[in-house]
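Subject: Sanity check before I submit

Could someone independently write out the structure tokens for this chain? I want to compare against mine line by line before I put it in a report. The sequence has 417 residues.
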Amino acid sequence: MHPRGSTRTESTRTGSAVSDVLVIGGGIIGLVTAWRAARRGLCTAVVDPEPGGGAAQVAAGMLAAVTELHYGEETLLALNLASARRYPDFVAELREASGGLDVGYRACGTLAVALDADDRAHLRELHALQSRCGLESEWLNGRECRRLEPMLAPGVRGGLRVDGDHQVDPRRLAAALVAACERAGVVFHRGWAERLTVVRERAAGAALQDGTELAADQVVLAAGSLSGRLGGVPDDVLPPVRPVKGQVLRLTVPRAYAPFLSRTVRAVVRGSHVYLVPRENGELVVGATSEELGWDTTVTAGGVYELLRDAHELVPGITELPLAETRAGLRPGSPDNAPLLGPSALPGLHLATGHYRNGVLLTPVTGDVMAEVLVSGELPEQARPFAPDRFSTTASSPASAPSSVSSVSSVSPVGVS
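---
Independent answer below. Compare away.
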């Protein structure tokens, strides 16, 4: 272990670099892991061509542990709730550590609404599940929903008010984490990791695409949907992570329309989930599609149309707003939609990937869990259900993912989440 701010890590284009911890992937998960490791006194480096990029640039930032509860995910719920509880303190600490950067955290609550009888029945079932899990949510009739959010369509049949589901701006969160890492002494290698270095059956660093060799006592693979493509990782250790495409729109709410929405609003329209996330800066995020299309990140006319159509049914006035941006990104999906956290079967290699739709929500707890693993070697009890070895007999490589991604080479360079 080395003191905070240690200069042990050095780098040349063709030389070598040594650190206590090398994090492969500079998205939100990789950054929070690096920051927390550095805060614990570990000399830490990150490999990524564009730290803070990746899925953070597309994600909406909903901290929706309650409204995104799914049947069969009660164990994941516990981890989500633990992370949500940490957010206020995490944001305050990150603001100080980043030099005062704001991450757009809003304790504004969420309203999930139903547009027809089937949706209403589904929400009633979800409300019952939430109640059985001891979660706080309030059933509202259509009139009460519209009283909270006057822009809602007249046909709204009812909804669930969840004051405990908040939001954060992932782009600003990523920027703050980059700044916090830099101030904590984390070294950034802005390039692609091509291959894991394995010495005497132990992970010992990584080789970059430009020829740089980075040595490390421990390696964390946190490359999001690309985590299963790093060369040099034994087949039985490669995480079973696949890309799930999501298209997102960003609109601008002119001052004349403000306040447009006061909280996150979400619904299921014709079987598709749609959400509207209002930012304090006048941005309105509308998302998101869920498409099993491999590595495709094309923004399609159909995807944009479907999002606008469904959002219009929910909030008719949305079609009057300027369309500022369309983006598509890749969520890192796992076989059970839960993250892989902690030591892998290869000594020295740890995983922090597969967060799927909960990456932003799980940022605080992931950072704490991975730092504890890196310092003590022990996986905290709350994270043990998400240890990578739970897939050891059922999924040994990305071949277990849907056929659309099963043919992807596992030796492609890696660097972003």
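---
OP: Matches mine. For the report I'm noting this point. Residues 1-106+168-241+335-417 form a domain with the FAD/NAD(P)-binding domain fold (CATH 3.50.50.60).
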